[in-house]
Every structure is written in C-alpha cells, then in structure tokens.
Amino acid sequence: xxxxxxxxxxxxxxxxxxxxxxxxxxxxxxxxxxxxxxxxxxxxxxxxxxxxxxxxxxxxxxxxxxxxxxxxxxxxxxxxxxxxxxxxxxxxxxxxxxxxxxxxxxxxxxxxxxxxxxxxxxxxxxxxxxxxxxxxxxxxxxxxxxxxxxxxxxxxxxxxxxxxxxxxxxxxxxxxxxxxxxxxxxxxxxxxxxxxxxxxxxxxxxxxxxxxxxxxxxxxxxxxxxxxxxxxxxxxxxxxxxxxx
Length: 245
Hints:
Elements lengths: L1 E3 L7 E3 L2 E2 L12 H11 L12 E2 L15 E4 L12 H12 L5 E6 L2 H7 L9 E6 L7 H7 L5 E6 L16 E5 L11 H14 L3 E5 L5 H4 L13 H10 L1
Parallel strand pairs: 2-5, 5-6, 6-7, 7-8, 8-9, 9-10
Antiparallel strand pairs: 1-2, 3-4
Helix pairs in contact: 3-4
C-alpha cells in the first residue's frame, strides 16, 4: 500500500484508497485496474474487492512514520476525489499531509469539479501539489477547475496524451507532465502533440517533464524528445532534494 515507485516523477506511492471507475477516454486501459485485478487473483487481502473503491483507514497515518524526505504520489491506485470517497476521509488525508512537512505529496485527479467544490473546506499545506489529468481537448475544463484551487503547486498530467492540446490555459499552472499510453492496446501519441505542449511551456517558463513515448513495450521507445531528456520540476522540488541529501 506504500511502496517505492517506478513512476519517473515521484519516489514512492501511498494508497489510503484503492479502486476507481472510468470517467473519460484516458481511463480506457487503466494500469491500476489491471494491477488491482492481478493482485486480487493472487489473493492479496487489500485487493479482495478488486477495483471497487475501498478505503484503507489503517493507511491514513503511514507517512507519519517516514522520516527521510520523499516525493509521495497519493493514490496511484485510485482517485482521492472519487464520489465514493467521503469528504471526511479526504480531509483526513489532507491533515496527514499537513503533519508531514518533510515530504512533498502529489495528488492527481480526474474529478476536478469535486476538487474545486471542496477547496474551501480543505487545508492547503505548502508541501502538497495538486494536479489534473488532461488527455485530450474534451477534458480541458479540468484545468479551469484546478486554477480555482489555492495549492502552492498546480500541475497537469497530459498522460496518456490522446490528441493535440494547443492553446492550453496555463495561467497559474506550475508544472506539466506529458506521456504516451503504455501496455496492452496502447494508443499512439504523435510527436507534434508533444512538441506543441513543450513550446507552450517554454513560452510561459513552466517546467516540462516528458515521461515516455509509451507503446506496448515502453522500454523500447524511451524518453528522449528532440534527443533530450526533459526532467523539469517546480522549484519546490529542489528544496526537497536538498533536504533529502
């Protein structure tokens, strides 16, 4: 439920919630759903419900036990703002984050309307980054919702990138991640879509992170764009690294 992560832009994951439901095209080949079903078949107790939304209250205070500063992705196996996650549970997650200033927590959601609706009832510690998934033009409304949130760092995850995203509304956005879909059935991503987002970030001086080209075998396609590895992070990341040394 808490584990070292192979995701390039974080150190580890913390899953006080598991399970989710599909809301847009980016969910079609959900890696978390595949993994949850595999773990259920293996008899892992926490995944006895498969990919149904399940709360794990015993995990709520886990980060309090971690001393060394880390970058922590919250709910890699779910969506914290899913409609089946009670508001009081979300507030408890935020309070745990508030009590762990040595760590940086990254929360990513596709339920941007609920995020925005709850914003004035949540604490907003400086060590929390909030992002929304934006896979194509149909869901760019999520950015407007994110811009209403008083987080210190607001970011976009354009992964899996499924179409062009020109003229993104980037006011108040501090970081952009782009990546292609990977795994069985992976849909292709075009280079011009990635380059367009890169150029928009460069024009706004927004850190850009290119995660992967993806594909059925993502290890074969790598991370190079224009013969360059783009590992941009918000300035706050450098503070975390310096404290971890």
